[in-house]
Structure formats: structure tokens, C-alpha cells
Amino acid sequence: MSLVAFVYTLHVLSAVVWVGGMFFAWMILRPAVIAALEGPSRLKLWLQVFPRFFVWVWCAVVLLPVTGIGMIHLNFSGFQTAPRYVQVMMGLYVVMVALFLRISTLNLPQLRKAVAAEQWPDGVAALGRIRRLVGINLIVGIVVVAIAAMRPTF
């Protein structure tokens, strides 16, 4: 396997884990949890899910720019000659990381605190904020994947 193929594979797998994980959580797990569990149990389950998923997101957060910059230098002569779509993808990556950091550093601790204190309405509110931000991040992630697949000429 060539270096270019290896770097590209790591890049794609990182994106699949992050965006696919959000898709699974939003479209599959969330409705199933709502159907199967009552309020406090739902909140407790999400407190088990998020940290496990976030370990993998952190891997993606690190690997995506490393492999992305690697591909830029392997396929182009640098940022100046990279196609515009690559630059757009880099900008959207920054947006995704900012949303993820907000969730992991602000919203998740609020959820943890509410559940520990058995303040269920506060926990529901914190989970709702996480859900909205994950939904936005999922949309941004799908846009990035679509741009990568299309490789537009803008």
C-alpha cells in the first residue's frame, strides 16, 4: 500500500467514525432510547454513551487534520495550490471541532452534574442542547462528506 493510499484510508475512516457515529446516535439510538426507557434512565444511558463515543471523536479530531495536511502535501504542492473544495472542507472541520468542543467541555458536564444531583429537568435541558448541537454537527459533517465525494471545481 502506498503512503498516499494509507493516509487517505486513515482520513476516510476517521470521517466515517465521526459522522457515522453521529448519524447512528441521532437516527437510530435516540429514537430507540426514547421508545424503551423513561427519563432518568435515558439520561443515565447517554452519560454512558457519550464518553465512549467521544474517545473515537477525539481520535478523528486528531487524525483528520494530520491526514488532511498530509494529503495536501502529497497531492498538491501545499495549501496555495489545493483546490477550493479542500479549503472549504478545512473550514467546515473547524466548525465541527468547535461544536464538538462545546458539547464535550460545556454541555456534557452540565448533563453529568444534573444527573448526579438527580435534577432531571436540568438533565433533560442539557441533553436537549447536546442533541441540537449534534444535529447541527451531523449536517455539517454530511456536507463535508458530500463535498469530498463530489470534488467540486469551485
UniProtKB/TrEMBL annotation:
InterPro entries: Cu-R_CopD_dom. It comes from the Bacteria. It holds the Pfam family CopD. One of its GO terms (cellular component) is membrane. Residues 48-150 form the Copper resistance protein D domain. Keywords: Membrane, Transmembrane, Transmembrane helix. The chain crosses the membrane at residues 6-29, 49-73, 85-103, 133-150. The keyword Transmembrane helix applies. This is Uncharacterized membrane protein.
